[in-house]
Amino acid sequence: MKVTVVCEHNRAMDSEEGKKAYPEGMNECIAGIFSEKNEVTLLRSDDQGVHGLTDEILEGTEVLVWWGHMHHGAVDSGLVEKIANRVQRGMGMIFLHSAHDSKPFKRLLGSSCSLVWREDGEFERLWCVNPTHPIARGLQTIDIPQEEMYGEPFDIPTPDELVYIGWFEGGEVFRGGCVFLRGRGKIFYFNPGHETYPTYKLPDVRRVLQQACEYVAPQGEILEKICCPHRPEPSYKR
Ligand code: ZN
Question: Cross-referenced InterPro entries, in alphabetical order (predicted)?
Answer without folding.
Answer: Class_I_gatase-like, ThuA-like, Trehalose_catabolism_ThuA_prok
